[in-house]
Amino acid sequence: MDAGKHRQGCRMGPDAYRVAGLEQALSDLGHTVTDIGDTLPDQVDVPDDPHLFSLPDCVGWTQALSRTAQESARQGLPIFMGGDHALSMGTVTGMAAHARHIDRPLFVLWLDAHSDFHTPGSTASGNLHGTPVAYFTGQPGFEAFPPLTSPIPTDRVGMIGLRSVDPAERAALEDDHAMLADMRSIDENGIKAPLMAFLDKVRAANGILHVSLDVDFLDPSIAPAVGTTVPGGATEREAHLVMELLHESSLVCSLDLVELNPFLDERGRTAKLMVDLAASLMGRRIFDRPTRSF
């Protein structure tokens, strides 16, 4: 999916993950892995909006990905290889429908430099990859998109790694009791404390957890292959710690790997790091990490 923003390249992300060895990394951990291939957007009868980039495509992707998420969740733990972050409009709503089917609440962990809480009416850029959290939490202004059957209350959203958030977005999220951990708080208190507090909340509610990992959660010095770089992101050690703690929680039901733009990468280093992080989430321990040469 490359319809959520003007800068192109994320459509190459899924193949970059394949080339970087995602399937082999997970198979080596003892998992049975099935690559179901690329999803295609539905054809929808939605008119273009001059303020929004590729609105019909984004709506079509949302419908298709929501359906794919529901179907895949019945088979195991789906990993959605992106693609820009607008794909979460479909993956999260599909996982929310699955959670409703099994009668458990869905929580969302958003690992990102941005809160992505704009609406179609508030986004200045017209890029819909900045709107998925607003959509799946049921904010107004998404009439062109599929109606939500299972909106995620904002207090079931946890965000870690924030460092580029508009004041209005932050005020709205704080008013709605989302868990927000920006890099200032992480520098002061570490990354483990907010994550464990959020996982305790998921566990207390007998919930399941969707993890959405944006490349720009990471510092651009270690993950350059993203068009929305913001200095001061998570280190490789911090990111692996998050993934290992998520694995130990046994709460994760699905994973987004988003905003990888291989056109901006350096010899595949970002794709390889994202694969390593996915492997940590799926059970690879610190002692088992491969030595990488670039």
Q: Would you write up a description of this structure?
A:
This protein has a six-stranded parallel beta sheet, with helices on both faces. The chain is globular, with a radius of gyration of 17 Å. It has a single domain (10-288), classed as 3-Layer(aba) Sandwich (Arginase, Chain A), CATH 3.40.800.10. With 294 residues, it is α/β, with parallel strands linked by helices. The mean pLDDT is 94. The protein is built from ten helices and six strands, in the order αααβαβαβαβααβαβα.
Helix amount: 25-40%
> CATH-wise, what's the superfamily?
Ureohydrolase domain
Q: Span between N and C termini?
A: 27 Å
CATH domain fold name: Arginase, Chain A
**Domain module count:** 1
Order of strands in the sheet with most strands: 1-6-5-2-3-4
Q: Supply the CATH architecture.
A: 3-Layer(aba) Sandwich
H-E string? HHHEHEHEHEHHEHEH
Largest β sheet strand count, sense and barrel closure = 6 strands, parallel
Give me the count of strands.
Answer: 6
Secondary-structure class: alpha/beta
The overall pLDDT average reads 94
Instruction: Identify the overall geometry.
Output: globular
Cα-atom radius of gyration: 17 Å
The unreliable regions are none
Tally of individual helices:
10
Short précis:
The chain has 294 residues and is of the alpha/beta class. It has helices at 13-19, 22-27, 55-73, 88-101, 132-136, 167-175, 183-189, 192-204, 236-249, 269-281, and strands spanning 79-81, 106-111, 157-162, 179-182, 208-214, 252-258.
